[in-house]
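Narrative of accomplishments. A recurring question from our advisory board has been how the design workflow behaves on a single, concrete structure rather than in aggregate. To address it, we present the structure tokens for one chain from the evaluation set, followed by the sequence designed for it. No filtering or post-editing was applied between the two.
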């Protein structure tokens, strides 16, 4: 891979990188305003143990999140294992036997299939007699006609929207599309609860789903909002009454948000959130660079380097099993942690196909750090995301491309 090619890519993406810089400035101001409004102090970093009663720093952090998301309440906890865990807590909190869950973005991410009961599991929503229906997207937009038909024909308790593409070939959904469909749904049924899976999408747009009408929004702290600092955790944001239900499902009825020890994690969660606008910007720049470079080399990518982005995920469609494997190997090889490890396709709990995954990260499974994965199935797509800095992201991607081309 020549220096001339890299220089050509840098020239082509210059305008797009400036757009990311402007976005970062605006979102950083939003975050700083929330910290200042809630008067965060060093004492908010103190730790609690046991039950976690009167954890002032934890409770203030949740108010900071509420300021940023422009919503009534949030639940930001290290007791969440992942974004999928937080989504599961929310679904079990909001749905009751004989209720119906409707997803309007097609089949959800693989790890939710056993939660819902699409793949049988005795602990699923289906085992509690909760029904499930799904409506596919049409040309990467919502099927408004079918949504209206379902809502007028039967009572739906919760509508689930997954913004990011997951392991699908569709595009991720912009905040504008989400706002439009929420308005459409609320005109038909004001009582339906709209829940948005916001993983990978935070701080990629100026607004979050709670600012455009979503009742509940869920995401992971080892993705965007953890800023590469949070060691684990997730958040749920939205209406106060629904957050209380989620809190009582995470902990126990009657105690809800009042319990949950921070165990010394408060400083990491505050600091990760503070750094998140910059880290998300670095991830976006790395994705733009990746898209342009791989396009120049003749590969299919989605989105293209000039396209508006809704999340930090960059698809590279290799149409070739070995190219996918070697690219992911390269990302691991040019990572700061476990660079001597060789990722191999293998079974992973919750996934139907073998998956190859590179994540040479400081935090296990952190996808706001440069990582890349993909199921071993046609058309052999690599799903790349994250990077703590743009410089490290460029180095990692260039190394991965060179490794792939050398082994082609």
């Amino acid at each position: 891979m020549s220096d001339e090619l890299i220089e050509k890519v840098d020239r082509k993406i210059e305008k797009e990188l400036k757009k990311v810089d402007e976005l970062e400035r605006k979102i950083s101001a939003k975050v700083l305003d929330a910290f200042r409004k809630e008067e965060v102090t060093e004492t908010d970093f103190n730790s609690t143990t046991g039950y976690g009663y009167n954890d002032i720093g934890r409770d203030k952090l949740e108010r900071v999140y509420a300021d940023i998301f422009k919503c009534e309440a949030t639940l930001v906890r290290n007791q969440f294992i992942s974004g999928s865990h937080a989504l599961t807590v929310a679904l079990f909190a909001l749905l009751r036997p004989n209720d119906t869950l409707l997803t309007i973005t097609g089949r959800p991410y693989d790890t939710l299939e056993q939660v819902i009961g699409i793949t049988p599991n005795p602990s699923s929503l289906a085992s509690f007699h909760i029904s499930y229906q799904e409506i596919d997207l049409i040309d990467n937009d919502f099927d408004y006609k079918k949504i209206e038909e379902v809502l007028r024909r039967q009572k739906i308790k919760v509508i689930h929207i997954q913004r990011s593409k997951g392991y699908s070939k569709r595009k991720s959904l912009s905040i504008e599309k989400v706002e439009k469909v929420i308005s459409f749904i609320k005109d038909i049924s004001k009582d339906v609860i709209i829940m948005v899976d916001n993983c990978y999408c935070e701080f990629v747009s100026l607004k979050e789903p709670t600012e455009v009408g979503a009742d509940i929004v869920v995401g992971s702290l080892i993705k965007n909002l953890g800023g590469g600092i949070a060691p684990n955790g997730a958040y749920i944001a939205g209406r106060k009454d629904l957050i209380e239900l989620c809190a009582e499902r995470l902990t126990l009825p009657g105690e809800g948000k009042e319990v949950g020890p921070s165990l010394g994690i408060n400083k990491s969660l505050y600091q990760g959130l503070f750094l998140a606008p910059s880290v998300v910007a670095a991830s976006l720049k790395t994705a733009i660079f990746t898209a342009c470079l791989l396009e120049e080399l003749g590969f299919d990518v989605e989105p293209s380097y000039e396209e508006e982005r809704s999340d930090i995920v960059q698809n590279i469609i290799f149409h070739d099993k070995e190219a996918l494997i070697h690219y992911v190997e390269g990302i691991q090889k040019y990572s700061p942690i476990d660079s001597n490890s060789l990722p191999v396709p293998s079974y992973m709990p919750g996934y139907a196909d073998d998956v190859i995954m590179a994540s040479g990260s400081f935090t296990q499974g952190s996808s706001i750090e440069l990582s890349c994965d993909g199921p071993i199935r046609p058309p052999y797509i690599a799903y790349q995301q994250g990077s703590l800095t743009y410089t490290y992201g460029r180095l990692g991607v260039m190394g991965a491309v060179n490794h792939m081309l050398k082994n082609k």
